[in-house]
Amino acid sequence: MNGFRHFDAHTVIHSAETKPNAESSRRSLLGEILDWMLAPLFLLWPMSIAITYVVAQNLANVPYDLGLANALQVLGQQVEVHDDVVSLPMSAPARLALRIRENDGVFWKAMGPSGDLLGGDGELPTPERTPSDQPNITYYENHALRDFEIRIAYTWMDLSARGSGPVLLVAAESVDRRTQLANDIIKGVIIPQFIVLPIAVVLVWFGLSRGVAPINALQRRLRARRPDDLSPIDERLAPSEIGPLITAMNDLLSRLEATLLAQKRFVADAAHQLKTPLAGLRTQAELAMRGEPQTDTQESLEQIIAGTTRATRLVNQLLLMANAENPNTMEMSPLDLTHLAQDHIHKWIHTALQKNIDLGFEGADQPLYIQGQNLLLGEALNNLIDNAIRYTPAYGQITVSLHDYSDRVVLAVEDSGPGIPPEERGRVFDRFYRVLGSGVDGSGLGLAIVREIAQRHHASVVIMDTHRKRSDPDATGARIELQFSSMLQRTHQPFASEG
After folding, report:
1. For the chain, which terminus, N or C, has the lower number of CB atoms within 10 Å?
2. So what's the pLDDT on residue 152?
3. Distance in angstroms (rounded) separating the CA atoms of residues 390 and 440
């Protein structure tokens, strides 16, 4: 037969576990930790700026207040009392010191016991003395002078020992330099934070990412597991903090495995128990047929034989399904797909001839080896051929083909029947599901078994339409492929050994 080249409307049924189409809407653990760490950090940052501003103001006042206190000391050293008369004769060093302070923006004045100006700038504010003011103690206040803010330092100099009343000494300067110093301090603290904070965020994110990396690795390993892999999770591969979670998951997997094994044993035991009475019932019906019964009785016996045949096939398929679902029965060995295909085609030639169907093989004659299970793959091919014969009308064609491509090995069964509607292709692999209106007897387990066996061999099942020239132009036909991944070990030469 000629090779098939034109296909359309294909549907691929992957053997791997179906992955969700969208990510879960739940927050990740990393996101939650970052939120709880970074949100308070960004909320506390403005508070840090405010506190830094207050501290900077206090730090800026200290040196300038000390300078004002020194100016008061210089003035105090120049006060003299002669014959109860207070004077302020300024020495040259004192004038020089105050002149330097004046160049820095410091102004001063001295008021005698009677409130007369002894010297200095008379426009400076004069603090009122309160009962709480102590002599020789320096006090500080903020005032406004000529529309700008100044800070003054003043003290009441006690001259009672020299026979005079207290003298008010005042030194003042603008707050501009203090504000500038405070701003410089704030900039020196805040600007590095603009650099350090993003770096800290990146380092926190990086550290947390490394911290949850084992959890992500565990998630990837779980996702990569096959659906039938219920083996315990190794607790040593996960952080100790999630050890209890791993233990709980292992307990759940153990209970689930026990439940599945009990279900499979029940199916296998029930199928085995049904085989013997069904075989006996069919034998008795066939013996009764040999006795030339009446017409009505003969029809009943024929229906009994047909019913027991269908029931026996169903039981055998249930046994095969249980065997395919049991991972302990999967012992891979070198398997020649070419020999397997040709051998099973010979078994079905007589059945195909009875329906006037042309059953043939297409592919290379040389051996094509893969790692597989001979019994299961043979049953998968049997189900595909049986399904094709059931749906292919008389004088139709069925072709079993085998091809080795660079990335996969394809074992296909193609027929000239009515085909499988695209809307049904996602369901024909469900157990006991049959396309309505086909008029063909069957249990609905054949393709489900094929998919199960394909999954065991890390293969996928593909359904296609075929448009080959045939007498019925409305027929589309069906092509079902078993695609074995290139990851499988295969060769055109026999395997030397399994070592």
Report:
1. C
2. 92
3. 7
Query: CA distances (Å), 183 to each of 16, 55, 177, 186, 249, in order?
Result: 65, 11, 10, 5, 59
Q: What angle do CA 320, 17, 227 make, to 5 degrees?
A: 55
- Give me the residues paired with residue 361 across strands: 400
Q: What is the C-alpha to C-alpha distance for residues 399 and 360, in angstroms, rounded to an integer?
A: 5
Q: Where are the domains of the chain?
A: 7-15+331-491, 29-126+133-225, 243-323
Distance CA 40, CA 42 (A): 5
Q: Name the least confident of 179-183, 233-237, 338-342.
A: 233-237
Separation of alpha carbons 477 and 388, rounded Å: 9
Q: What is the mean pLDDT of residues 86-109?
A: 75
3-state secondary structure of 313: helix
Does 1.10.287.130 match the CATH number of domain 243-323? yes
- DSSP string across 254-297: HHHHHHHHHHHHHHHHHHHHHHHHHHHHHHHHHHHHHT---HHH
CATH superfamily of 7-15+331-491: Histidine kinase-like ATPase, C-terminal domain (3.30.565.10)
d(CA 420, CA 403): 23
> Measured between alpha carbons, how far is residue 251 from residues 233, 240, 243 in Å?
10, 17, 12
Q: Is 128 helix (H, G, I), strand (E, B) or coil?
A: coil
29-126+133-225 fold: Beta-Lactamase (3.30.450)
Residue 30 is inside which H or E element, if any?
A: helix 29-78
CB 72 within 8 A of CB 153: yes
Between residues 298 and 88, which one has the greater pLDDT?
88
Greatest CA span in the chain, whole angstroms? Answer: 165
Instruction: Report residue 333: phi and psi, to 5°.
Output: -150, 165
d(CA 261, CA 249) in angstroms, rounded, equals 18
Reported confidence tier of residue 272, pLDDT bands at 50, 70, 90: low
**In sequence order, what are the beta bridge partners of 339?**
none
CB 448 within 8 A of CB 13: no
Vertex 305: Cα angle to 301 and 309 (nearest 5)? 170
Strand order through the sheet with 490-491: 333-336, 369-372, 490-491
d(CA 257, CA 228): 9
Give the tens place of pLDDT for each residue, 139-154.
999 988 888 888 999 9
| Cα(246)–Cα(233) distance, integer angstroms | 7
